[in-house]
Prior knowledge:
By secondary structure, chain A is of the alpha+beta class.
Amino acid sequence: MAGNSFGQLFRITTFGESHGEAIGVIIDGCPSGVEVDLDYIQGELDKRKPGQSKITTQRKESDTVKILSGTFEGKTTGTPIAMIIPNEDQRSKDYSHNVDVFRPSHADYTYATKYGIRDHRGGGRSSARETAARVAAGALAKLLLKSQGIEIVAHVSSVGKIDAPNVFIDNADEFIAQREQNIVRCADPATAEEMIAFIDGVRKDGDTVGGKVSCYIKNVPVGLGEPVFDKLHADLGKAMLSINAVHGFEFGSGFSGSEMRGSEHNDIFMKDAEGKVITRTNFSGGIQGGISNGMPIEFKVAFKPVATIMHNQQTIDGEGNAAEISGKGRHDPCVVPRAVPIVEAMAALVIADHLLRNRSAKI
Amino acid sequence: MAGNSFGQLFRITTFGESHGEAIGVIIDGCPSGVEVDLDYIQGELDKRKPGQSKITTQRKESDTVKILSGTFEGKTTGTPIAMIIPNEDQRSKDYSHNVDVFRPSHADYTYATKYGIRDHRGGGRSSARETAARVAAGALAKLLLKSQGIEIVAHVSSVGKIDAPNVFIDNADEFIAQREQNIVRCADPATAEEMIAFIDGVRKDGDTVGGKVSCYIKNVPVGLGEPVFDKLHADLGKAMLSINAVHGFEFGSGFSGSEMRGSEHNDIFMKDAEGKVITRTNFSGGIQGGISNGMPIEFKVAFKPVATIMHNQQTIDGEGNAAEISGKGRHDPCVVPRAVPIVEAMAALVIADHLLRNRSAKI
Amino acid sequence: MAGNSFGQLFRITTFGESHGEAIGVIIDGCPSGVEVDLDYIQGELDKRKPGQSKITTQRKESDTVKILSGTFEGKTTGTPIAMIIPNEDQRSKDYSHNVDVFRPSHADYTYATKYGIRDHRGGGRSSARETAARVAAGALAKLLLKSQGIEIVAHVSSVGKIDAPNVFIDNADEFIAQREQNIVRCADPATAEEMIAFIDGVRKDGDTVGGKVSCYIKNVPVGLGEPVFDKLHADLGKAMLSINAVHGFEFGSGFSGSEMRGSEHNDIFMKDAEGKVITRTNFSGGIQGGISNGMPIEFKVAFKPVATIMHNQQTIDGEGNAAEISGKGRHDPCVVPRAVPIVEAMAALVIADHLLRNRSAKI
Amino acid sequence: MAGNSFGQLFRITTFGESHGEAIGVIIDGCPSGVEVDLDYIQGELDKRKPGQSKITTQRKESDTVKILSGTFEGKTTGTPIAMIIPNEDQRSKDYSHNVDVFRPSHADYTYATKYGIRDHRGGGRSSARETAARVAAGALAKLLLKSQGIEIVAHVSSVGKIDAPNVFIDNADEFIAQREQNIVRCADPATAEEMIAFIDGVRKDGDTVGGKVSCYIKNVPVGLGEPVFDKLHADLGKAMLSINAVHGFEFGSGFSGSEMRGSEHNDIFMKDAEGKVITRTNFSGGIQGGISNGMPIEFKVAFKPVATIMHNQQTIDGEGNAAEISGKGRHDPCVVPRAVPIVEAMAALVIADHLLRNRSAKI
C-alpha cells in the first residue's frame, strides 16, 4: 500500500536506500520448481551495475546478490525468496553538500515534504539504485518465463534525437548477443557507435541526455491480461512508468496510432502456415482488449535526461531560501544503457504475474 | 484480482456488459461527509453518453444513474456507494452477424480464447460502455476533490494530425465552459472547428480516426504518490492505459523530454510572490520522484482509431476459417470527444486514492 | 480496504443498508463456465430470509435476487457477476425512536463516532441484512465447488446450553434434508425439538439467546491454503468472525485441544482401503500447517445473543446524556437458525478462493 | 497473495526457513517519525527465542536482529524497514531421519503435496521459527502504538487444564513485570508455579501439552476497525489463527457468550467520572459492529500441544508406505510461554494497521 510492492500473484517487495546497509527484494508467489540459475541472475545485475563503461557513472558496486530463502537444492520451493545486495561504495561525503538543499528535478523536495524526514545520502530510497532489486527479481521471473518458452528482449532505440532503425533478429539470444557488443546496448551497430559518441560528448559537457528503450516479448500465450483495469498493457505501462526517470510509455502503434484511420490501423486476422492465428499487421502490439493475442508484444519507454549534472544550479534550501547547488559527485550522462535490463525485468514481472493470474480464468 | 477493481483506499469495482441488464459500480472507501450532487454526476455522464452529437455513435442511451446505497440525507456515510445505470437500447440484433466471427482489432478473439465463452452482443464486457460506470464514480471523486480545492480539466488536444495550440485559461470552470461550446470538446475554438469538419468527413467515409486528450490537475497538495512502484504518474498511466483504445501515455515533458539535455530539462526551484515553492519550468509535470510537488500535473493520452468501421473486412471465424465481416451497426467516428470525461474521471479516482493514502505518511 | 470486500481471487464486494433501496454483491474472479442455477441461489436465500418461522424476526422480505451481469446463456463468463436484492419492508418508523440514542451492544455508537454520520434506520450498514448478499455470492461459490465434488454442510449444534450430539450422516444431501425438517436447523431431531421449545420461551420473555453452528467441508483436495498468514483456517476464522454476532471460532480440536497432550492429539497418518492417505483421528480438523490435508474440515462458530431485546434498557444519547431505549420492533430471539446458510456461504467463499489460489503453487 | 504478507497499510512480509541462511521481515507502510528503540525490539525477540529456560526447546539461537533499511538517525523515514535475523544453530542432521517420512500433525505431508518439493530441515518454512520475524515487526508496531498511548499485554492464562484466575493490574508495565518473574509467563504467581511443575512433568514424559494466551489492549481510540469483512476482531482472529499451533480464538464473552441471554449480555452505555463514554460490562470485548468502542479489547487464543514429541510414532513415508518416526531432536514441551510475545506482536500489527486505515473514515 505504501508502494514498495508490485504484482498480484508473482509479487515483489523491495527495500533499501542508496547508502544504507543493503538493498534487496522478497519475491512472494513464485511457483515451486523453478530452477534457480544464480549465474544468470548475477549476469542480469552486471548489465545494470554502475561503473561498467565510460558512459555510466563511476560509482563502484559489484552488486553481488545473495539468496537468503525460498530455494532448496537449486529449485524454488513456493516460499518467499529473499535476495539481498549489500551496498559497498557508500561514498556519502559526496552528498554532504546536499543535506539541506533541494536538487532540481530530484525527489528531495517531495520526500522532505511528504515524510518530514529524509535520508539525503544519494537520494536515499528515491535513488535508481533500488532498481537493482527489481533486476534480481526480474531475472528469476525470466527464468520462470523461459521454462514456458517466453522470451523478452529490449534495447536502446533512441538517445536524444538519434533513433535506431528497426532490427530484425527473430532469435532472442542473437538479438541480445548483438546488443551486448556495444556499451550503449543498441542492437543496431552503426547507430550504437553514433549514440556512444554523442553520449561521450554530453558527458564531457557535464551534461546528460534522455533516450528510449524498445522492448519485445515473444511466445506469449493467448489470454494473459485481465479485462477492464488490469489490462496487460496497463500493467506494463505502470511497471515502466515506475522506473526512475521514465516520462512516457506507448505500445503497438502508440502515439502515432492516434494519427491513423481505423481502416489502416485494424489488424486483420489470418492463419499462418502452421495454422496458428496471427494478424497481418501488429498495430495492436500483441494486446487486444487488454489481453495478449499471441502476436509479439511491443512497447517503447521514454526516459528523461538524468537530473544530476555537473553544472552549478540555482535552487532553494529547506527553509526556502535561495541557494546554489554545485555540480559534484558521480553521475550517468545517459541512463538508457543501464535501463535495458530494468525494462526487461519489469516486463518479466508483469508477464509472470499475468501468467499465474490467467490460471483462474476458466473453471 | 480479476481486474475489475481500481484504487486502493478509494476503490471502485465496475460490472456490466454492453447489452446486459445494467452496468454499474461500487465505490468502497469514500470518506463520510462528501455532499453528493446527483445533478453533477448525471451531467458528467451526459458528456460521455452516446448519441449526443453528429460525431458520436447514434446508439440512444439516457445513461440515467441511480444510487442504491452509501448515502444518507445527501451525504456519503463511509459505507459502499453502489450506482447503477440500466441499459436501454440493447439492439442486440445488430450484432447477430458477429456471433461467430472475430472483429479485427476488437477483443472478440482474446476473450473467446481466454474464457472459452463470450457474450458477443456489442462486445459484452469489453465494450467501452463500461466506462460510464467509471465516469459516475469519478464524478463522485471529483466532488470529494473539489471540497479540497483540487480541480481537474481535460480537453481534446489532437484529432488525427490536427493539433490544438496550448490554451491558457487558468480558471477550471472557464476552461470547461469554453471546451463545452463545441461538440469535439477542444478548448481552442478555431481548432475545434477544423477537427469537427475532419471527423465529419471521416464519418462519411465509414472510417474512424484517433486523437489525443490532454489533462491538467491543479491545486494538488505536495506529497501525493507513493515512492517506487505506486508513483503518482505510474498510477495515472495505468488508469489512462486501462481506458478502451488508449495506446500511449506521457506526462510532463513526455516523449519529447527524452530528446532533451538535463541542463535544459531540470526544473529550477524558486518561490512565488506568496512564498509558495514553485519551479521555473514544469517539465516534471508536477511530479518528482513519483510524488506531487505542488505544480500543475500535466499529461497526455493517445487513443487509437475506433476499430468498428463501416467497411467490409477480412477475418476468421471461431473455427479459424476465413470469413468476411460487413460494416453495419452504429459507431463512433472518433472516440476522443466522449473520452474527455473518462480521462477526467480516471484522473480523479487516482488523485482521490492518493489523497487518502497520503494520510498515513507521517506518525 | 474499507472492508467491504472478501477474498483474493474469488472476491466479493457487498453493498447496501438495511432500509435503503437494495443490497447486493459483485463477485469478481468467478471462473467462466460455472452453470448458474438461480433456483438454488434463491433457495439458499430463502433459508436466511426473515419471517420464515415463529422463531425468527417477523420482518417480511422475499429477498428475491436478480443477476445483472456476468452470465450468458446460463453460464458464468469470467466477468463480474452483480446480484441485487431489493429491500421491500422498510418499516423505518420502527426505528424513529432510536435516531438519537445508542442501542446497547449494537454498532450505533461506534459508527457514529467513526463516521460522524449514521444511517440509523435498522442499523444501516451494520445490520445483519448485509449477510443476504453474502449468501447469494456463497451460493454461487457452492455451485462452483459442487462441480469439483466439494460439499459444505452446517447445522445448529448448540442453543444456549443445549448441545446436540454428533450427527453421523456422511451424505451431504441427506444431512441437509434432515436438518431442514425442523425450523431450528439442527440435524439431530430430538435436540431440535428441545432447542425450539427453549427459543420460543426466550422469545416470549422478549429476550434472546446465543448458540453455535458447526460446519463440515468434505472432499477438499489436499493443498488448499497458503502458508504463514493466509492459512486455510485463518481465512475461515476471519470469514466466520466477520459474521454479525460471532464471538468465537475454533477448528479441529479447538479450545479443548489446548487441554490435551501431544501424544493423544497427534493425528497418525495411514492409508484407507482405496489407498488414499488419511489420518486415524482428525484433531487437526482437516488442516495441517494451514493447508488442507484431505480429511474433512471441521469448525465451530459461537454466536452471542442478539442485542435487540423487547425490554427497556438504560443507555446514553448522542450528546452523552442518560436515556432509555424502549423494547419495540421486530427481532430474532436466536440468530443461529438463520445463520446456518451464512456460515456455509462464507465457508464456500473461502474454499473457492483457495481453490483458485492453489493453482499457482507449482510451475 | 501467496500468504506471506499481513496487514493493509501497516504491512509486513516475512521470509525464511528454519534452517536456511536467515529469516526476516519487511515492514512497508510504517509512518515516518517513529523512534526506533532497537533494544526494545531485541528484548521482545529475547522473550520468544529458544533455549531461554528449562521448559523451552534447547535449540540455541541468539536471534539477533539487524535493521537494513528504512531508518535514518534513529527514526523511521516512511520507506520499507527490512529486518534480518541470521540462523545460527542449524543442526540439520537432527532432521535427516525425517527426510522421507511425514511427521504426524506437522505440515510435512501438506507441503510436499502442495508444492511437490519440500525443505525438510526443521519444517522449513512451516517452522514456528518464522514467528521471530513477526515479533521483530510487532515490536516496531508496539513502539508506534506506545507513541499514541496504546498498550498491549498478554500472558499465559491456561496450561492444559490449569487456568489462571483473572489478574487485576491496570498498569501495563506492572503487568508485564509480574508476568516476567516466572518462566511460564503467567501474571498470577501461584498459578505460574503450578503450570511450570506440570510442564516439567510433561517434558520428562517426552510429551507436550497445549495452553491458552489471554491478551488485553488498552487505550484504543474509538473507531478502529472496518465494517463488514475487516471487523477489528475478525482481523485479530485471523492474526491469531495464523500463529503456528493455534486452534481457537474468542473475544469478549467468546464461546461462553453463546450460552447467555441478551438481557444479561448487553453492555449498557454510561459515562465515567471524567465524562468518557464507557460500558458497564464488557462482554463486547471492546468491539461493537467490528469497531473499537474505547473499552479494553480482550481476547483469548487456544494453542494445541506441540506435535513434536519424544515418542516413536507410526506414520507413512513419501511413497505412502508405513513407517515409524523416532522421537529425537529438541522440542518445546509447551509452546505458550514463548507464544506470549507472538500474540502481542500480532495484536500490535492489527491495531497499527487499523489505526492507519481509520484515517480515511471522514472527509
